[in-house]
Amino acid sequence: MHSFFITGTDTNIGKTAVTCSLIAKYIEEGFRVGGMKPVAAGCSIKNGHIIYEDVQKIIEVSNVDLIINQINPYQFEAPIAPHISFKKNKKEIDIHLIKKHLQLFKKQMDYLFIEGAGGFAVPLTENFSTVDLIKALNIPIILVVGMRLGCINHALLTVESILNKKIKLCGWVANRIDQHMLAYEENISFLKERIEAPCLGEVPYFKNFDPYKASKFIDINKLNDKVRED
Q: Would you call 37 a catalytic residue per the annotation?
């Protein structure tokens, strides 16, 4: 099973959209594909059950049977930083539990895309961060850059941090979250020159997002080439 961790330059920049698009793309290529979001904050309660919209989207697009407590073992209702939720609920992350789920996924998936919470440097608990999670799972990163004013600073700082942590960056996706962004072409050109990883695609602004439509703008050949190269 090939696994990738989807992180972003910020929160609300389209990590779930890109995760679902990557899943859809590999499904179109004939693979068994699923997604995972270990930590989710900002859930709603329906019929006595905690439901996280982004996790629901991952389940819907995947072509393998997914058990919600396995792909999303940590769910919090309040839309606040994960480490605050963990503290309020007196919980700690059990990395062994997450790894156990990954072992089960190997039997049913060819590709797994794991979506992080917030950005790359987000703390998950007081003593455990997203960086720690990625290192513990030992999987490469795909970075989602939310294309809007300020994206160059966010993207370059995030890439610098990833490389300084000696984590493999397989590629990045430009996700246009501001359809009226000025000088879009100049910004994307600058990022392509400065980021030392292939741009896997430019996803345009979608009023009503469809992962299969968005997947047309992602080139997984670049991702596959980078994996083989490394």
A: yes
**Residues of the chain whose pLDDT is less than 70?**
43-51, 77-79, 226, 229-230
Instruction: Classify each residue of 130-147 as buried b or exposed e, where b means 16 or more C-beta atoms within 10 Å of its C-beta.
Output: bbbbbeeeebbbbbbbbb
Dihedral Cα 192, 194, 196, 200, nearest 10 deg: -20
The CA distance from 155 to 144, in Å, is 9
Catalytic residue of the set 15, 37, 57, 226:
37
HSE at residue 230, side-chain half, CA atoms within 13 A, is 15
- 186-213 pLDDT, tens digit each: 999 999 999 999 999 999 999 888 999 9
Q: What is the pLDDT of residue 188?
A: 97
The alpha helices in the chain, defined as continuous H runs, are: 15-28, 53-61, 68-71, 82-88, 95-105, 130-137, 151-164, 184-194, 211-214, 220-229
Question: Given strand 33-36, what is the order of strands in its sheet?
Answer: 33-36, 111-119, 2-8, 141-147, 169-176, 199-203
Contacts of 111 (CB under 8 A, 6+ apart): 1, 2, 3, 4, 23, 26, 31, 32, 33, 34
Pairing of strands 123-125, 128-129: antiparallel
What is the C-alpha to C-alpha distance for residues 23 and 75, in angstroms, rounded to an integer? 22
Query: How far is Cα 109 from Cα 107, in angstroms, rounded to an integer?
Result: 6
Q: How many CB atoms lie within 10 A of CB 65?
A: 8
Using alpha carbons, select from 115, 113, 15, 120 the residue that is nearest to residue 64: 113
Under DSSP, is residue 89 helix (H, G, I), strand (E, B) or coil?
coil
